[in-house]
């Protein structure tokens, strides 16, 4: 049984436009899927729909079933908020694109990381403090004591994204949804955060849904890729298949642009 | 000049900014101290008229007496109590009602939100003095009427601000992020929405306190405030009006205290703006 099964998912905007159309895919335990497409292709909406967090006014149809170990399989579409609150975090959670806005500006970093630890692991007092610091260490933040005391605006973008990852992992989710987690970061920081994410996912045996517009980014962290365009899936397959033998013209464009970028980099290297 | 002369280092930004807060606290604190002392000690009993009418300053009466022979300073002290009581009472009422309505509107569905917003606009367009007159007509002039009238007026302002702030916070990623980790709505309100709304709100509440103090004085001036045994600054001004040329101190003294309190409260509001918000406090 898959951890996440999306079947015939459609999302319509309040004025009736179809933003996601008849999307179907599934992610098994430990599996890593890349969802790739340009801006406005509906990938982020798909992520929100999986969490049951679409903005008010959007209408969803189809089916999203989350079946995390130790929890009853739940149909997310149409489920009441109370039931989803118990599911979110443990079954699936999200790391967002912009770490500055994804952290509460008025809450110290340590408290934000501690919150899911407190709720999901029931830790209190000294044990909670300990767990918070080790969560920060786990995402390779040096000087976790200082980071824990800082407000989000007092640390760098890369550090913020590591904190956001630590917060997400503190829930011990079965599925991690990463919504362009490296897009807002410097290129040099991107690679670090990406390898950190890949290592943590592998170490914990989590499933991953990685959303990006960048084929080069997705190739390193996922096994399979689903290419989206204008709200529909245009192509899917293993990373190798997509890169070596893209069938759709749009996918070919993506591959070509990634390749041109690579070559440009290589040409400058020697 | 020799090179070894040390350049005076400018005080750190945080200190310099809190000067407004300090001055504000001193000014407002003066009035608060006056009010507190008045609870335990007054120079003369409030209705003592032994001093003779319109006596000048000095001679047993620090600021002289009014046209009925009552000690001016005694009345000022009692007035400070009323100004603060009505001001803080009205702001407390306005704050509670306003924040509750603002939160409701911020979370509400489209049509309910529109309804609340329209109601608030009507309330804001309605002059506080008019509300006060209606209330006084309905239930008689009293301290409570003044508090309710002014409180209702400021609740509309607070509610409108809260609504906008809540909407802005709710659209932020960190609320969605908290949602994705399974945080319930009540928790999000307590831990994320209120703390983020608070810095702006507390500044606004302090400003509202200044407005409320002035409103109380205006109501009393018009005879719509606390009835006679309560000596409000507003009514002192009104009573001193007839004798302003012969005994100017009777009008000047309550006016000066009123101004001091309002300026003090506004300075506090200004100072709080910097202190209440850690992003402002540290990043510059």
From TrEMBL, chain A:
Mode of membrane association: Peripheral membrane protein
Sequence ranges assigned to domain ABC transporter in this UniProt record: 4-255
Subcellular location: Cell membrane
Organism of derivation: Rugosimonospora africana
Alphabetized PANTHER family for the sequence: ATPASE AAA-TYPE CORE DOMAIN-CONTAINING PROTEIN, OLIGOPEPTIDE TRANSPORT ATP-BINDING PROTEIN APPD
GO cellular component: plasma membrane
Origin: domain of life: Bacteria
InterPro entries recorded: AAA+_ATPase, ABC_Ni/Peptide_Import, ABC_transporter-like_ATP-bd, ABC_transporter-like_CS, P-loop_NTPase
A Pfam short name: ABC_tran
Sample GO molecular function, one term: ATP hydrolysis activity
Keywords, comma-separated and alphabetical: ATP-binding, Cell inner membrane, Cell membrane, Membrane, Nucleotide-binding, Translocase, Transport
Family: Belongs to the ABC transporter superfamily.
Name under which the protein is recorded: ABC transporter ATP-binding protein
TrEMBL record, chain B:
Gene3D superfamilies xref list: MetI-like (1.10.3720.10)
SUPFAM superfamilies: MetI-like
Chief location category: membrane
Domain ABC transmembrane type-1 per the UniProt entry, residue ranges: 80-269
InterPro entries named in the record: BP-dependent_transpt_permease, MetI-like, MetI-like_sf
Keywords annotated in UniProt: Cell membrane, Membrane, Transmembrane, Transmembrane helix, Transport
Membrane topology, record value: Multi-pass membrane protein
Location of the protein in the cell: Cell membrane
Key word Cell membrane present: yes
Gene Ontology BP annotations: transmembrane transport
Coiled-coil stretches noted in the UniProt entry, renumbered to this chain: none
GO cellular component: plasma membrane
Signal sequence extent: none
Transmembrane segments: 21-44, 82-108, 115-137, 143-162, 201-224, 244-272
Superkingdom of this protein's organism: Bacteria
Family membership: Belongs to the binding-protein-dependent transport system permease family.
Identification of the protein by name: Peptide ABC transporter permease
């Amino acid at each position: 049984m898959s951890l996440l099964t999306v079947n015939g998912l459609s999302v319509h905007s309040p004025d009736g436009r179809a933003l996601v159309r008849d999307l179907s895919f599934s992610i098994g335990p430990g599996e890593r899927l890349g969802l790739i497409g340009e801006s406005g292709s509906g990938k982020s909406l798909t992520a929100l729909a999986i969490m049951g967090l679409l903005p008010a006014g959007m209408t969803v149809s189809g089916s999203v079933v989350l079946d995390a170990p130790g929890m009853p399989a739940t149909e997310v579409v149409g489920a009441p908020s109370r039931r989803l609150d118990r599911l979110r975090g443990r079954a699936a959670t999200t790391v967002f694109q912009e770490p500055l806005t994804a952290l509460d500006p008025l809450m110290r970093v340590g408290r934000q990381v501690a919150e899911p630890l407190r709720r999901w692991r029931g830790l209190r007092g000294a044990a909670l403090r300990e767990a918070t610091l080790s969560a920060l260490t786990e995402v390779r933040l040096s000087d976790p004591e200082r980071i824990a005391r800082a407000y989000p605006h007092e640390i760098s973008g890369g550090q913020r994204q590591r904190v956001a990852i630590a917060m997400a992992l503190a829930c011990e989710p079965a599925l991690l949804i990463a919504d362009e987690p490296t897009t807002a970061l410097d290129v040099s920081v991107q690679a670090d955060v990406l390898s950190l994410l890949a290592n943590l996912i592998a170490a914990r045996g989590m499933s991953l849904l990685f959303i990006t517009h960048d084929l080069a980014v997705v190739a390193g962290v996922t096994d399979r890729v689903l290419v989206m365009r204008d709200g529909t899936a245009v192509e899917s397959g293993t990373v190798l298949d997509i890169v070596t033998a893209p069938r759709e013209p749009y996918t070919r464009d993506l591959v070509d642009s990634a390749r041109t970028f690579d070559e440009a980099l290589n040409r400058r290297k020697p | 000049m020799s090179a070894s002369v040390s350049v005076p280092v400018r005080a750190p930004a945080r200190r310099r900014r809190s000067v407004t807060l300090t001055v504000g606290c001193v000014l407002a604190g003066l009035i608060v101290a006056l009010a507190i002392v008045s609870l335990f000690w007054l120079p003369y009993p409030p209705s003592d008229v032994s001093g003779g009418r319109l006596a000048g300053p000095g001679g047993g009466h620090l600021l002289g007496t009014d046209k009925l022979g009552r000690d001016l300073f005694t009345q000022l002290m009692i007035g400070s109590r009323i100004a603060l009581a009505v001001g803080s009472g009205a702001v407390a009422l306005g704050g509670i009602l306003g924040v509750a309505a603002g939160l409701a509107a911020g979370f509400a569905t489209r049509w309910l939100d529109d309804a609340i917003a329209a109601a608030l606009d009507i309330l804001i367009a309605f002059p506080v003095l008019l509300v006060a007159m209606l209330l006084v007509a309905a239930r008689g002039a009293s301290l409570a009427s003044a508090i309710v009238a002014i409180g209702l007026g400021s609740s509309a302002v607070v509610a409108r601000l809260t609504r906008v702030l809540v909407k802005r916070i709710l659209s932020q990623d960190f609320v969605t992020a908290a949602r994705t980790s399974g945080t319930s709505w009540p928790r999000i309100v307590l831990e994320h929405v209120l703390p983020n709304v608070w810095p702006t709100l507390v500044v606004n509440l302090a400003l509202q306190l200044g407005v409320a103090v002035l409103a109380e004085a205006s109501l009393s001036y018009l005879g719509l405030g606390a009835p006679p045994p309560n000596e409000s600054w507003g009514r002192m001004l009104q009573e001193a009006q007839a004798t302003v040329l012969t005994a100017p101190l009777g009008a000047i003294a309550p006016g000066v205290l009123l101004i001091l309190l309002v300026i003090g409260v506004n300075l506090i509001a200004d100072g709080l703006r910097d202190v209440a918000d850690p992003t402002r406090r540290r990043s510059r």
